[in-house]
Every structure is written in structure tokens, then in C-alpha cells.
Amino acid sequence: MAENAGVSDTSDGSFITPNYRRYALGLLTAVYTVNYVDRQILSILLEPIKIELSLSDTQLGLLFTTFGIFYATLGLPIAMLADRTNRRNVITAAMTIFSGMTVACGFVTSFWQLMLARILVGVGEAGSSPPSHSMIADMYEPKSRATALATFSLGVNLGIFAGFIIGGYVVQWYDWRTAFFVVGLPGLVLAVLVRITLREPPRGHSEGRVEDSDKEVAPTIFDVLRFLLAQPSFRHIAAGATLVSFVGYGAVAWLPAFLIRSHGMEVGDIGLALALIIGISGGLGTYGAGLLADRLGQGDVRWYMWVVAIAGFAAFPFGFSVYLVDNLAIALALFVVPAAAGSLYLGPSLAMTQGLAPLKMRAAASALLLFILNIIGLGLGPQAVGIVSDLLEPTYGVESLRYALLVMTPFGLWGAVHFYLAARTLGADLERAQLAPAA
Description:
Layout: H1 18-53, H2 57-82, H3 87-105, H4 111-125, H5 129-139, H6 142-173, H7 176-197, H8 221-229, H9 232-263, H10 267-297, H11 303-322, H12 328-342, H13 346-355, H14 362-396, H15 400-408, H16 410-422, H17 426-435
């Protein structure tokens, strides 16, 4: 069948059996895992790259900033394309680009070459998540959507787990260039599997709201912005996610360097420790939050946001204390709690964003949320830590990074407040979205 204008492979969605849904969700989660491995591998490699290429902390932070800017800004136009055309093909092309450019990172010989390669990784990754969110929403009905999107979001934790394990040991046994090759090549194989086995679901299938794609006019980016930003709950979700990701991206990017400088850990040991903490406790938090929100949300939809807010308030004192203790074992033990809470906002936030958007705005709605949180969280979080660390270095020396990370932590508490505020208007905003035209 034709694959333009959003035409599905099977218009009635009869192929979406329970087994197929599980397979598709698993495959998209694998895509997101590879996406996150390629994104986060740089964190564990910062120190050897800094030494070989003679870079400052500000330059290292700039690698994350430039990645974040292109990743965030290109997500919106690519999502608009995904709302009009075959989402599987968009994901396939995106995977090919970001995996290929990750491999290219292993060949660079200067800061500028590395920055260009990382920018192109960001360009590719911009096209992966929004179409995936939209496809999952079309396969899973609202009452199980947060769990499905939380499962998809496990790619964050699995990706960090794999990135730290692979990166930590490969750089210890070989070098940082080999680490880029090892994590980049599997994505090219997975892109072929996506193209061959994943099928395009009818839009709105999970809610019985399938529209005639040929007759409906696709919304413009201004339509999407106008509709979503008019909803108080979306504004608070976006603000909360942005602040939490600002802290999270900064911490994950710089924790390996912090553990090397302040606690004298070896790179391989850091990779194993952070992989276990973020991968296991973070994964349990991410999946558990989606499952809990779906269960409690059946009685009161506000629980989708309350779950996230409560976790943020509870995790703050633990996250703050990580940078105050000198004992390595205690610091790692304290980090378990913020690691569990760090990405648990994803499932409920993405599910509610999909619910707050009309059918043909769903990929764009996810892209808008990702744009807001990534332009600040990913684009500025690691960079802010690097700049503050350089500014504090004359006073605190090697411990400057410890205090740079410490001063960023309270932004997560501010984010929890926004999730609490989002709950107040969530029910009314969801009802308004259900009454909106499909396009």
C-alpha cells in the first residue's frame, strides 16, 4: 500500500493482536535503548576524551549543549512529518543516521570534528521518539498507556546501563574510540529489523477514533502550539519535566567525572556501579511509576501527576546528600533513590501528553514536550555544570565539580512542584482534548 499522507499498512488495524502489540512495544523499546546508549556513551568517556584532545570542562559541556539544541529543535519538524506520513519509515531513517554518526565519533581527531559528529547524532535521534510515542498510543488504550509508555521509557535505564557497562570496560581494555564503534554498529542492524517487521497502526485505533487520513487537513505547528500551550496542565507538565531533566542530564553526564575526581574510582568500576544503580533502580522506578499511575489513575486521574510529584519531593534530600559525603559507599547508596526517581516522570507525562492531544497532533505533542525539556534539560544541564565547575575551580580545585553538581540539585524540587500543580486541571484538560476535532 502507499505509505504517504499517513496511510497505514493495514487500514482496519486487524494485525494489532496482543502478541503483535507486545512485539512492537519491545522493538520500539529496543530502538529507544540503542538511542540512549548512543546519547549517553559520551558521559563515561569524558575523562579520556578530555585528556587526549586537551579539552576544558566548558568544551565538554558544549558537546552536550550542541547535541541538545539540534535534537530538540529538529524534533518538532520531524514529528510534523511523522504526523503526516509513515512513522515506521521515519524511525528507520532516524536510526540509520544516529547509529552511523555514533560510529563516526570514533574517527575524530579534534574538538570541532567531535562536536559535528555529536550534532549529527542529535539530528538522527530527533526523529526517533515522537513517532514511537504516537504509534504506542495508537496500539494501547488510555487505561494502559502510561504502563506501555513507561515500558518504552525503560530504554533510558537500559541504555544508560548498557552505555556505562560497555563504555566503562571497553575504554579500560581498549580506548574511547573503540567504545563508539561497539555501541554504534548494532543500531544499523536494528534499523533494518524495524523496516522489515514493524507495521504502521491506524491513527486512533486504540480509542476507536480512526479517521479518514485523506479527508482531514493536517494541523500546522502553530495549531499544535496554540492547542497545547492553552492547557494549564500541559504547561506544568512541560515545566516539571524540564526542571527534572535539567538536573538529571547534568548529573548523568558528570557523575563519572565526579566519581573519578572526588572519589578516585576507576572508569570500569564506575561503569559497573552506575549501570547497576541507574539501570536497575531507575528501571524499577520508571516502570513502577507507570504501572502505579495507571492503577491509581482509574479512580482519580490526578494520580498520574501526584505519583511523580511525591517521588520528586521524597528523592530530593537523598540527591542533595550524594555530593555532601566523602565516603564512596555512602554516596553510591544515597544515589539509589534519586536514580529511581530520575526518569519515572516519563511514563505518566508522555501518557498524559498523548491524552491531551488530538489524534493528528500526537507525534508533534510529544516532540513539543521533548523540545521544551531537552532544549533546557539536555541543552543547558550538562553545560551549566561544566561552566560552574570551571568557575569554581580556582577556589575548590578538583572538588569544583562536586559543588557544581550540588547547586543544580534544588531545581528538581522545583520540578516536583509543577507536577503537583499539573494535577489541578488535568481532568478538565483531558476532557477538552477528547472533544476536539481529530486533526
